[in-house]
Design a protein that fits this description.
This protein is mostly helical. It has helices at 2-31, 36-59, 67-98, 103-126, 136-139. The chain is 80% helix and 0% strand. The longest helix has 32 residues, at 67-98.
């Protein structure tokens, strides 16, 4: 049951994160006329902040509140989201500059790949339960 709830929450907050990403991209790309690469980067930053908080608290229920544990999660999260940013921007460049599709459609297509990648990175690397070998810091959790 836990895995179904986790997957449901990941999909729910993944959809919300994707909406943050696509909506902010649309505002910066279509609304403000910024270059699609700049708009993608700004949208990525906003969606990463939203995703970290929601994944930590509502998807993987990471209760680590100690400075080292949260820092480790955040750095790991940023690393893997950085990889997903490369996937996102590379997909956008290929789809817009070479395949010649609309930037908003390219953004939606790129996000499908990014969501799948991010789930596996978050579940199996970033928010995996801490081991007791992390010391007393790992014991400092929200109850």
């Amino acid at each position: 049951m836990k895995n179904k709830n986790e997957l449901f929450n990941y999909l729910l907050f993944g959809v919300l994160t994707t909406l943050v990403n696509i909506a902010s991209f649309a505002v910066f790309d279509k609304g403000l006329g910024l270059d699609y690469k700049v708009a993608t980067t700004i949208a990525w930053v906003l969606s990463v902040i939203f995703a970290f908080v929601t994944n930590k608290l509502y998807v993987f229920y990471s209760k680590n509140i100690g400075g080292k544990s949260v820092f480790r999660e955040f750095i790991s999260f940023l690393f893997f989201r950085g990889l997903s940013y490369v996937l996102d921007i590379a997909s956008m460049i290929i789809l817009i500059d070479f395949v010649k599709i609309d930037s908003l459609l390219a953004k939606i297509a790129a996000n499908v790949m990014v969501v799948v990648f991010n789930y596996f990175a978050s579940k199996y690397v970033i928010f995996k339960p801490s081991s007791s070998s992390e010391g007393a810091e790992a014991d400092e959790k929200i109850t």
